[in-house]
Design goal:
It contains 23 helices and 8 strands. It has about 575 residues and is mainly alpha-helical. The radius of gyration is 25 Å and the shape is globular. The relative contact order is 0.12. InterPro entries: MFS_dom, MFS_sugar_transport-like, MFS_Sugar_Transporters, MFS_trans_sf, Sugar/inositol_transpt, Sugar_transporter_CS.
């Protein structure tokens, strides 16, 4: 597959072409191999709308730092010192900020069974409703600080569900040659949400500082995003992989044709249909109860490895220290006399704009190179940042050391450049890629939960830690970034330009991560061997001819009652002799 300009070419997959690879099935020679648009209007529209789940996430998390400094918010929900000064204690501010993360943890875990039961797009609408309810609870608060905390917890449930559903919907629907960029768009919209929250906070506190409208308006504007996503997603199709899972094969094929901007006879659509059908057939044969399915996931080939890898990568995304920079932003910028609200706008503007670069990097330089270089970049930035902050900055009166403050601002900005182009967006891409269809919802739920656990820990405990060791806390994050680079090098497989089914096969084959970029999909004969070696429970006795094509009786290859149309109980044949996949995997 070649990606020159704005088109994708498939000559290397054509058996009748001089550019075709060896070992291709001769039965594929009659397919359409014409170039396809790299980004179709439908894919672009889907990417923008669905990624608004990230905007809701970023908007909800970004607004609270500004609220804690608003006079009216402080007067209503703060505490009173002996001298009459209003303030937020470390515990109270930590609970108000961090309870969102506690809610997101639970929402991410609940998201998996809900997504499997009602579908991906209906689940997105449901979680948008939950976020909206949380907004209502917060806006209705008058003087009870715990009501704000509870409202943020409820909103967190919805945000957690969306943090699972949005990357899953994009990964299961998008063409594989642009899947990475689309999933990265989720992180782009997170940064946009944080940026918008900072701008709205600055606007309201500037024009109505002593009115509850300064924070209630900001929360209320979040309804716009939840309504647009919650209602808009209903006009988009269900993901083709979920449609196949529930027996709606024809609708899934139509969705693939629309998304790929191709006809049913095009190689890209035909082979995707093969791969999805083969996996769904296998899943239906080994279908179990929810409990047995969850426990069986840990015993499935290479699944425990992948789940632990996903949870580890999400943990290190938090331990890169990005939230630490935003937490210390106010102190840093005080050294050069910049308003704290302007501080947030500056940092969030950088965070938002450079994420566009990440969309380019993920598909042009790959996941591994980008993540390793990003982790090393952030390691250097943190070492310099922590050293300057601890040894050169006047912590009691930062304005007395403007030179140190400028150095800190520069390296804070450089750190954000590294994070927003690599570890910010790309971890969500990898999480959406590494799990097979059968376990994707559960694997992503556990990985996302890991992110939120560490998000909560950092959000709640950072004020206590920085109070004791100040900028030396940065050395901890520097060490974490160095470890993160090693994790990626030794354990993460390159998924650039691969279908989800190919990535699954790479894990089953135990492809060496640092050699994974050169891996070539095996022939049908080799793929059959991989299935047998993995002991997937595949019961079809495939017979391979001299050309490596799969043959066999119609009954054996079609399967019986593999998937039934919900509501009318009609059976759908899953795999015919001519469409047996050369890339089927467990």
């Amino acid at each position: 597959m070649r990606l020159p300009g704005n088109q994708v070419h498939f000559d290397e997959h054509d058996p009748s072409s001089e550019k075709g690879r060896q070992g291709l099935r001769s039965s594929l020679s009659g397919l359409d191999y014409s170039p396809l648009p790299r980004v179709s209007p439908r894919v672009l529209g889907m990417g923008v709308l669905v990624s608004m789940g990230g905007l809701i996430f970023g908007y909800d998390t970004g607004q609270i730092s500004g609220f804690l400094e608003m006079p009216d918010f402080l007067e209503r929900f703060g505490q009173l010192k002996d001298d009459g000064t209003l303030y937020f204690s470390t515990v109270r501010s930590g609970l108000i900020v961090a309870l969102l993360s506690a809610g997101t943890l639970i929402g991410a875990l609940l998201g998996s069974p809900i997504a499997d039961r009602i579908g991906r797009k209906k689940a997105i609408s449901f979680w948008c409703l939950v976020v909206s309810i949380g907004f209502v609870v917060q806006i209705a608060a008058v003087t009870a600080w715990y009501q704000v905390m509870i409202g943020r917890f409820i909103s967190g449930l919805g945000v957690g569900g969306l943090s699972l559903m949005v990357p899953m919907y994009q990964a299961e629907t998008a063409p594989y040659w642009i899947r990475g960029a689309l999933v990265c768009a989720y992180q782009l919209f997170i940064t946009m949400g944080i940026f918008l929250a900072a701008c709205f906070n600055y606007g309201t506190v500037t024009h109505m500082p002593n009115s509850s409208a300064c924070w209630r308006i900001v929360i209320g504007l979040g309804w716009v995003f939840t309504i647009v996503l919650g209602v808009g997603i209903l006009f988009f199709p269900e993901t083709p992989r979920y449609d196949y899972k529930v027996g709606k094969a024809e609708r899934a094929k139509q969705t693939l044709c629309k998304v790929y901007a191709a006809n049913m006879n095009h190689w890209s659509v035909f082979t995707q249909v093969e791969e999805i059908e083969a996996k769904v057939r296998l899943e239906h044969k080994v279908k179990q109860s929810s409990y047995k399915e969850f426990m069986g996931m840990w015993q499935a080939p290479r699944m425990a490895y992948r789940v632990l890898l996903g949870m580890t990568l999400q943990m290190f995304q938090q331990l890169t220290g990005a939230n630490y920079f935003f937490y210390y932003g106010t102190t840093i910028f005080q050294s050069v006399q910049i308003n704290s609200y302007i501080t947030q706008i500056i940092l969030n503007t950088i965070n938002f704009l450079v994420t566009f670069l990440g969309l380019y990097m993920v598909e042009h330089y790959g996941r591994r190179k980008s993540l390793i270089s990003g982790a090393l970049w952030m390691f250097v930035c943190f070492m310099i940042f922590a050293s300057v902050g601890h040894f050169s900055l006047d912590l009691k009166n930062p304005q007395n050391t403007p030179s140190a403050g400028i150095a800190l601002i520069v390296f804070a900005s450089l750190f954000i450049l590294g994070f927003a182009t690599t570890w910010g967006p790309m971890i969500w891409t990898i999480q959406a890629e590494i799990f097979p269809t059968r376990y994707r919802a559960k694997g992503m739920a556990l990985s996302t939960a890991s992110n939120w656990i560490w998000n909560f820990c950092i959000g709640f405990f950072t004020p206590f830690i920085t109070k004791d060791i100040d900028f030396r806390y940065g050395y901890v994050f520097a060490g974490c970034n160095l470890c993160a680079a090693g994790i990626v090098y030794f354990f993460v497989i390159e998924g650039q330009g691969r279908t989800l089914e190919e990535i699954d096969t790479m894990y089953l084959e135990r492809v060496i991560p640092w050699k994974s970029s050169k891996w070539q999909p095996p022939s049908a004969e080799e793929m059959a061997r991989i299935r047998r070696a993995a002991q997937t429970g595949e019961e079809v006795d495939d017979v391979l001819d001299a050309n490596g094509e799969v043959t066999g009786s119609d009954d054996a290859l079609r399967g019986t009652n593999d998937a039934k149309e919900e509501g009318n109980g009609t059976s759908n044949g899953i795999l015919s002799g001519d469409t047996a996949s050369h890339q089927e995997n467990a």
